[in-house]
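Reopening: Putative manganese efflux pump MntP still failing for me.
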Amino acid sequence: MPAAHFGDIVSLVFMAIALGMDAFSVSLGMGMQKIRLKRIAIVGAVIGLFHVFMPFLGILLGHFISEQIGGYATLSGGLLLFGIGAQMIFSSFNHVSKRLAQPIGIGLIFFALSVSLDSFSVGLSLGLSEVKTVIALLLFGTASMVLTWTGMVLGKKMHGLFGVYSEILGGSILCGFGLHILFG
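Support: Ran it again with your exact input. Result attached.
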């Protein structure tokens, strides 16, 4: 495997972890509720599917936009990633304690959609650049699923100490990738 491809995959792995941090932090709080392991497995799988589907839609739209705006695609993608990361960091300081809905039925769909919206935007920015779509989608889905499971299981065992810090880390990683695209 050439070094350039290895570097792209490593970048995608870090990006997948950054995207999954939102699901991880929310899952910590959700895991503090009395949720059975079977439900935790289902929730993680659904969130993983949403983290495949949403960036796929974003990548498709990004490819279309990329054909239309040409040379501004890289700039747009970098700015978008940086903006998403900054929003994650700033929102981590704005947490208000609230009761989380149970992850069942339509509540699970809304939960999965809410933690995967940022992956749509990242998919959009990746669609503006040349990225290995299948690898990116598999990494995004797998990372978010595993991080959701981890967050819910840890949430059953620990208090919400990690929630804010994981969002700050995820936002910082996305900001770093945005800056790398802009200036690297």
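The mean pLDDT is 78. If you still see a failure, please send the error message rather than a screenshot.
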